[in-house]
Amino acid sequence: MSASRDPAAAPGGLRAEAGTPAPLGATVVDGGVNFAVATAPGRRVVLVLCDPADGAVTAELPFPAEPHHGPHGDVHAMTVRGPHPALSHYGYRVEPGPATVLLDPYARELAGTGPFGTRPAYRSVVPDPEAAAFDWGDDRRPRHPAGDLVLYELHVRGFTRDPSSGVAHPGTYAGLREKLPYLAALGVTAVELLPVFEFDETDNTYAAPGTGEPLPNYWGYNTVAFLAPKAGYAADRGPGGPARELKELVRACHAAGIEVILDVVLNHTAEGDHRGPTLSFRALHEAAYYLLDADGRHRNLTATGNTVNANHPVASAFLLDCLRHWATEYHVDGFRFDMASILTRGTDGAVLEDPPLVRAIATDPVLADLRLIAEASDAAGTEQVGSFPHFGRWSEWNMRYRDTIRRFLLGRPGSTAAFATRLVGSPDLYPGRGAAPSINYVTCHDGFTLADLTAYDHRHNAANGEGGGDGIPGEDSWNHGHEGPTDDPAIRALRARQARNALLLLLTSRGVPMLLAGDEHGRTQGGNNNAYSQDNPTSWLDWSLADAPPGAALLRFTRRCLAFRRAHPVLRRLDHPEGRRRPGAPHPPVSWHGETPDQPDWSAASTLLAVLLHDEAADDTVYLAANTGDAPRTVRAPAPPPGRRWHVFADTAAPPGADAHPPGAEPPCPDPDRLTLPPRATTLLVAHPL
Questions:
Q1: Per-residue pLDDT band at 646 (split at 50, 70, 90)
Q2: What is the C-alpha to C-alpha distance for residues 15 and 24, in angstroms, rounded to an integer?
Q3: Which residues pair with 377 in a beta bridge?
Q4: What is the CATH number of the domain that holds 654?
Q5: Tens-place pLDDT, residues 534-588
């Protein structure tokens, strides 16, 4: 130790005295800083102060010998007073424990991170109240009704990192802020950001084939600091810069009517198992923060080496504090929880029917108006889609919707009846809850992009350095006759049609639609369906695709589909529609049809889905017919409501520009009694007054 162990006499004119146990972390107080850290019982803790310039240790101050005892551990607290204590970087040493300087779990900012891709030398930063001050102005959360939500999943860096983005600060929060007009014009009402908690992108054991260059952990699902923003995503990496820049992004999103949902990783940390780095949690209170077996070994239910002991009181309190921090300090609108099924596991690893943390999140008053979205699965085989403990609050990524619409697009046996259930909001999964809990999607960051879903039968992941065997082995994809890029005009046309089919079906389904960034203009990853390690054009959005065919045509189609959804209440209703016609109504809320009205084909071999959706209160009616077979079909549309005529909003087999029309300017349907559906084509009609 480089300093006296007398807490009353510290070097450099500092003075240490007994502190307060709450709040945990480093808190600037009158004339000093209060440090409070929780550990397992029986630990001795030393505060380590570091030079902000180079991280050199400047002082080591032992905490008082008698900590604040609690039922699940101890809290060590000390107030340090003297010249400029708030300008220090700091960490902790724990005895018994490793000699390394530990990060504060409650650190709101980390130093030593550098530009994205550089190996970090982490240090916790004492918050500077002046640097942390932020003028939110008249910021208000948009609080869109659930039926108006359109989610757009994106990676902060990848969204603008490519030179084609044309932003002043590529790959940053500021760069994303520059693209908000694009998102607003597209029709997006919420962005779902891949992890923005501080993570170590250099933490990847694999190397690029051929060059041997280390590969990054680009996605960021390996949290280092749960309360600190990712500094490598900031154009301003000075003191307080990343936090300020992220807050500016949130404020600008709200001003544009766009909500901000964070993808949060509460199920594991960057420490891995016993072979991983000791950063903080392992040394402070390993058994409280991680699931361990009877022999003290890590339970690896996340395929990352460790599993957070989410329902231990210590870990649960920390995770709840984390969410409150982002809600209050950053004004975010909600969270998507990676591998949320881990949060339902008890301290023995078994799945609980009434998990305390999941209930606490749902009932916490600070989080009361925020969106809670579960990825209702984990790497140990738990799958809770439709059964995740929701407490009236939680929504879910509906993975069954994803799988069913993909099978339907391919015309697989049994897929027509199965997709009909998904299209009306999955009443089998969410009985009595309506369609609001169902986050519907065709693609997400994990897997093929929409363009690749139509261009590849197999994953092409050799660049990930894992022998090509990583990623989802089968995705119900189809290359339409050629693997990868092709100049064959027939194959290219069919692929484009299938992309339009997917988008049209998604945006006419009940529930909350989610788009993957770039799908609207044909982004490809070259068949890589696990691009977590690709910080290069494979993962970056190529904005030039949006400016030229065929990407520009797909972008126009997507914008019109989103505008049509906004214009039609019948598509944004969140009840599960009934098939009974109310007295005096021309149609029931939902009716199913086939080649002739009221005669649907629910056989396993069926490749025709036809549905009429009617909203009596809004006087709004649409008719959707989808042919997923290889032969053309001719259908007779049901009669529209009295005084109405069918108009064609979308025909995915039509040439670009005529494949979808501006809402309100749809041309009349020439012959609704003989509506021809080419192979792999979808038509959407809307009833307008005569």
A1: very high
A2: 20
A3: 383
A4: 2.60.40.1180
A5: 999 999 999 999 999 999 999 999 999 999 999 999 999 999 999 999 999 999 9
Residue with tokens 């009361």: 368
Per-residue pLDDT band at 132 (split at 50, 70, 90): confident
Q: Measure the CA–CA gap between 185 and 191, rounded to whole angstroms.
A: 14
d(CA 333, CA 370) in angstroms, rounded, equals: 5
Q: Which amino acid is at 581?
A: R
Assigned domain for 467 exists? no
286 is catalytic: no
SS3 218: coil
Residue 84 is predicted with a pLDDT of 59
Sequence-distant (≥ 6) Cβ neighbours of residue 350 within 8 angstroms? none
The tokens for 148 are 């108006």
Exposure class string for 576-613: b at 16+ Cβ within 10 A, else e: bbeeeeeeeebbbbbbbbbbebeebbeeeebbbbbbbb
Of 201, 203, 338, 476, which is the active-site residue? 338
Query: Is 51 within a domain?
Result: yes
For residues 477 and 459, give the distance between their C-alpha atoms in angstroms, rounded to a whole number: 10
Confidence of residue 6 (pLDDT cuts 50, 70, 90): very low
Confidence at 87, pLDDT banded by 50, 70, 90: low
Average pLDDT of 364-370? Answer: 97
Catalytic choice (192, 203, 375, 476): 375
**Residue indicated by tokens 């069954």:** 400
Token pair listed for 616: 């009596």
**CATH of residue 79:** 2.60.40.10
Mean pLDDT, rounded, of the chain: 96
Angle 356-363/313-329 helices, nearest 10 degrees?
A: 30
Q: 527 lies in a domain?
A: no
- Whether the per-residue pLDDT at 5 is higher than 50: the answer is no
660-687 pLDDT, tens digit per residue, is: 999 999 999 999 999 999 999 999 999 9
SS3 (DSSP) at 262: strand
In angstroms, the Cα distances linking 644 to 116, 463, 567, 587, 673 are 58, 56, 17, 13, 15
Question: Domain range holding 636?
Answer: 578-689
Query: Where does a domain end: 132, 151, 185?
Result: 132
Number of residues in the chain: 690
CB atoms within 10 A of CB 351: 15
Closest CA to 684 of 646, 639, 634: 646
Strand partners, 154: 193
Whole-number pLDDT of residue 86: 54
Give the pLDDT confidence score for residue 684 in this predicted structure.
98
Backbone angles phi, psi at 626, to 5 degrees: -125, 130
Residues 172 and 242: their CA atoms lie apart, in Å, by 10
Structural domains of the chain, count: 3
Instruction: Say how far residue 404 (Cα) sits from the centre of its chain.
Output: 21
Where does a domain end: 352, 377, 395?
A: 395
Give domain status of residue 240, yes or no. Answer: no
How far apart (Å, rounded) are the C-alpha atoms in residues 664 and 21?
Answer: 62
Whether residue 213 lies in the annotated active site:
no
pTM score, two decimals? 0.97
pLDDT tens digit string along 147-178? 999 999 999 999 999 999 999 999 999 999 99
Whether pLDDT at 259 is above 70: yes
Are the beta carbons of 133 and 517 closer than 8 angstroms? no
